[in-house]
Amino acid sequence: MAVNSNITKTDASSHENGKDWATKNGGSVPQSSCRLTGGNDKNAVTLLNDNALACPTFHESVSRKRFEAYVNGLIEPHYWKGILYPGLYFKPQVFVDLQNYPFQPDDIVIATYPKSGTTWTAEIVSLLMHQADESYAKSLDISERVTHLEAPPGLSVKNLNSIQKPRIFQTHFQHTYLPPAIMNSRCKIIYVLRNPKDVAVSFFHHHRMAKDLGNFDKDFKHFLSLFLEGRVVCGSWFNHVKTYWKRRDDSNLLIVRYEDMKNNLSQTLMNISKFLGISLSDAQIMEVNNLCTFDKMKENERVNRNWVPSFDTTKSTFIRKGIIGDWKNHFSQEDDHIFDAIYQLKMKEISDLKFIYE
Ligand code: PPS
Question: Is residue 219 part of a domain?
């Protein structure tokens, strides 16, 4: 495995001093953290430590060792604005080039914290934008119909120019770190929320399967501690959700929920259609509904990502269980109590956000 040891070792072990550093600085988080790589990037380290320090499970030496091992398992890890990314598909230069890319007002962006329903929503939006045309959807892989901003075709931002309109993008950037032209052009953004306990479980299984994430081989409890401390790729779930929730009144932002999609998909389809200004017949909405059920998507090779070379499908599958409440099969009672306590602590200023857990 090609690991950039210059980045991983230095950053991971710098956590040892991060607590002192944060304490000396009043625990504040620098806003100008935008260096790409580790080395002496104290800002990146401090951001991660800030998440960790606010966490009751934080035991510095244990956490540091766990995080160090986690980072060492990633292929070519790097930081962008203090957030850790795996580098096999997410190249640092892409992150730089996105800052100056001229996104257009008619671009559509699906934003998510990983494992919240990105691919599901991508398939939905692609179908809605193409009049529920199954033959179109079956003619191209989902990654060709919906472009991952952090991993554009050929892993080069200039290739975004050759994408056919309407361009649909997906991204795991938190709102604060969306490329400036997306913010400024007021592209339509659909943010997908999923209850964090199921996100943690789904992310755990994704880590077990993904070679670029080190084929994580520790138990769920171990992963959960990293997740709660925000010490995983794409950063803290709590921070991510807060950045979008704070913008929930923006007219160009629609927030949808995984659990609502599970419980009443056609209502979510109508909400998304209205937001995107698409008019489809009831029959077309029904067609999208049918094509996007869990069973249909699991068997559809255009969306199930079974072909991705870095996924070891003997460990898990990308379209895995697709249920609300799988966390109950993974959390101990203690995990649940800790989770709830940390949630209260980290989300205390967001009292109007509630999740469906079962
Ligand atoms: S990623 O890696 O961030 O792009 O993953 P993401 O697509 O966001 O999330 C994957 C989870 O979404 C589930 N999924 C679905 N659930 C219900 N219905 C449909 N149609 C569907 N399609 C995908 C998928 O199974 C993953 O959740 P888990 O809990 O792991 O099964």
Answer: no
Q: Which of 175, 112, 179 is nearest to 146 (CA)?
A: 112
pLDDT single digits (tens) 133-165: 999 999 999 999 999 999 999 999 999 999 999
| Residue 187, phi then psi, degrees to nearest 5 | -55, 155
* E-assigned strand segments in the chain: 78-80, 83-85, 108-112, 147-148, 168-171, 188-193, 253-257
- The domain spanning residue 316 has which CATH number? 3.40.50.300
Per the annotation, the verdict on 206 as an active-site residue is: no
| Cβ < 6 A, ligand 1 pocket | 112, 114-120, 198, 202, 205-206, 292-294, 297, 319-322, 326
Parent domain of 19: 1-85
pLDDT at residue 49 tops 70: no
By alpha-carbon position, which residue is closest to atom 27 of ligand 1?
322
